[in-house]
Amino acid sequence: MTSTIFMVLALSFSGSAVAGAAPDSGKIALPNEDQTQSISKPVLEKFASAKPWTAERMKKAILADDPEASAAVPLSPTEAQDNVSKDKEKKATKATEPVAPLTNPDQPALLAATTVPSTAGKLFYYNPYDRRDYVCSGSVINSNYKNLVITAAHCVHGGPGSGFFKEFAFAPAYFNGPNSYYGVWNYEMARTFNSWINSSDWSHDQAFVSFQPRNGQELVNVTGGNGLVTGNSRTQSNTRIWGWPAGAPYTGEVPYYCDGTSEAFAFSSTDSALYCDMTGGASGGPWLKDTINYNLGYVYAVTSRRMPVGRPLLLATPNSSDVLSMFNLMY
Predict the structure, then answer these.
(1) 12, 121, 141, 219: most buried by Cβ count inside 10 Å?
(2) What pLDDT digit, counting tens, does each position of 157-176 carry?
(3) DSSP 3-state assignment of 1?
(4) Cα dihedral 181→187→188→193 (10° resolution)
């Protein structure tokens, strides 16, 4: 398993539109609301917040709980072969295609030559149970409503004994503060799995957050959006992971990415693993395959947790058909 980690030293992205084929409507999973729960922003908060997400508030937000995985039991040769066979049986489904942002004559020319992804960013939220601000990572997903971000379930809900977090805000292309062009977006609704809510099921550590229009525009039309794929195997070559790690030695102020080939983590696990030493704050960041450029690709998983001992690994369960069902419930 090989990978490389990089720090991004630019500001943001803009590019030419990329046309994609329409998804195969025969593969769309039927929504199952019994599998998930959602929270919507109260009507009175939609247009005026008593505590807006200023740049200062963002800098003071602390990293979300840094989930750590137990050490994996090495696979026997038979188990390794069984893993390969099991993964090959999976059938990948493209739920949506990547799309670049709409051309905007007011967009600064500088943005076209830089490399911080506009389709990824920092996801901020308020935890009403300890009254503190937190931060994760997330990425924009193309959808019919053009307003969607995918992240980790533990970035929207505290799991058993807790509840949904509030005041979600998304800052695309964050670099030493929110980007002046892409701005900060306020949420409309967040949704995640009951299996996470009730039992901290790491195989369902995925969530979606939808965002309100900003200055009369939808999120995807401003930033572009990644495609969403489900049913992929855990072994993926040319994987790229984006994140804003905030635990030492990182600060959370600039994005990093890791490139490499992901592999099955353990026989009894649903996780994919990639060598990468990002820390807390990277949770919810996208795992991209079939990248078109540094800004666009297909999200097949999101960062769930990490192995902090031995060789550093990030872990993520590839999106299942349940993720597709949840995607189809978002608006």
Answers:
(1) 121
(2) 999 999 999 999 999 999 99
(3) coil
(4) 130
pTM for the full predicted model: 0.84
Say which residues have a Cβ less than 8 Å from residue 26's Cβ, sequence separation at least 6: none
Between the CA of residue 28 and those of 92, 109, 201, 232, what are the distances in Å? 12, 39, 24, 15
- What is the Cβ-side half-sphere exposure of residue 61, based on CA atoms within 13 angstroms? 35
Cα-trace Rg, the chain? 18
Q: Is the peptide bond before 249 cis (omega within 30 degrees of 0)?
A: yes
The Cα–Cα gap between 301 and 64 comes to 19
Dist CA 63 CA 50 (whole Å)? 23
Question: Nearest 10 degrees: CA dihedral of 206, 183, 43, 145?
Answer: -60
DSSP bridge partners of 187: 211
Amino acid at 288: L
In eight-state DSSP terms, residue 153 is G
Rounded distance between C-alpha atoms, residue 98 and residue 18, angstroms: 7
* Half-sphere exposure for 220 (CA within 13 Å, toward CB): 23
Question: DSSP 3-state assignment of 234?
Answer: coil
Residue type at 305 in one-letter notation: R
